[in-house]
Amino acid sequence: MATPPPGQHSPPGIFIVTLDGPEQQQARLHDEPTALVAALESAAGWERGVADIRRVDRVRAAVADAGIVAQAGVMPGRNLRAIRLIIQGVGNANVAGMLKRLQWNGDPSLAVSALSDLTGLVKPQTGLSIDVTSQGVSPRLGLELFRPIEWHQTDRAGWKLLFDRLVEKEWCLPAKADGLAEWPGIEIFFGQDGVYKVRQTINHIKLVIDRGAVRVKGYAAVDVLRTAP
């Protein structure tokens, strides 16, 4: 589920997410646009719309085999009726071409330039977060970026380098960057029923490009594992 932007208090978003693992690697949400759209419209409480299916199907045709729609969702609490699709597995070198095929209502060179500024600090693949509306793909574009590490690694030093770059580009306030940089870490707790390892990590960041402006969101995570009885 997704939470609203700071200062806004609307119901959370509802997302369908493909599972990780060998048996799920071929799952592509956009292969069944009719069923996908019907499920999302039902979850949002919207009336069914054939036009929504057509628009999502256009995205399916544009993505083809160049990526995978790994997440799809709706945010019914917002004024804009849109279906958000997150296309993963797009090589950074192919982002401009993909945005053109998607007919994104924006300047692909802005996305290319932003990715270039972060070369070496993030993986060479990007997740494209797009909103499919009645007017086509909206001007808002999200670039979901991951550090080149395993999911369980805290990578505190690596994240600090990335956050420093974001501050340098004036995409992130220094105070917020400092807070995020302090988050990754591991602590051990001793409880009455066992020993617990608490791991704080950052899953990814998202560059949001909207009508020329760039801002950054960070997605922190925490998991708790009982290591001994």
Short description:
The chain is of the alpha+beta class. The protein folds into two domains: 14-145, no CATH class; 147-209 and 220-229, no CATH class. It is built from six helices and eight strands.
Number of spatially distinct domains: 2
| CA-based shape | globular
Structural class: alpha+beta
Largest sheet: 8 strands, antiparallel
Low-confidence stretches: none
Cα(first) to Cα(last) distance is 32 Å
Q: Which series of helices and strands comes N to C?
A: EHHEEHHEEHHEEE
Average residue pLDDT: 89
Gyration radius from CA atoms, angstroms: 19 Å
Overall strand count: 8
- Share of β-strand residues: 25-35%
Q: Give helix % range.
A: 25-40%
User: How many helical elements?
Assistant: 6
